[in-house]
């Protein structure tokens, strides 16, 4: 689908980990942020729905 994304290793990057916890209020991974819409865990249907809006 040629979607631009940025990947963070929250196990190694403390700042990224803190941002993930702030956004998701959770320690689960992955946390996917699509223009402020947060998806916790891998939810293919929700991810596709959000990407179709773009």
Dominant shape: globular
Q: Give the strand tally.
A: 2
Radius of gyration: 12 Å
By secondary-structure content and strand pairing, the structural class works out as alpha+beta
* Helical run tally: 2
Q: How are the strands of the largest sheet arranged? A: 1-2
Give the number of domains.
1
Mean pLDDT: 92
Order of helices and strands: HEEH
Q: What summary fits the major beta sheet?
A: 2 strands, antiparallel
Strand content: 5-15%
Low-confidence stretches: none
Distance between the termini: 12 Å
Residues in helices, as a percent range:
25-40%
Protein name: Glutaredoxin
InterPro entries: Glutaredoxin (IPR002109), Thioredoxin-like_sf (IPR036249)
Pfam families: Glutaredoxin (PF00462)
Organism: Candidatus Azambacteria bacterium GW2011_GWD2_46_48
Which structural traits does this protein have?
two-stranded antiparallel sheet; alpha+beta; 54 residues; 15% strand; single chain
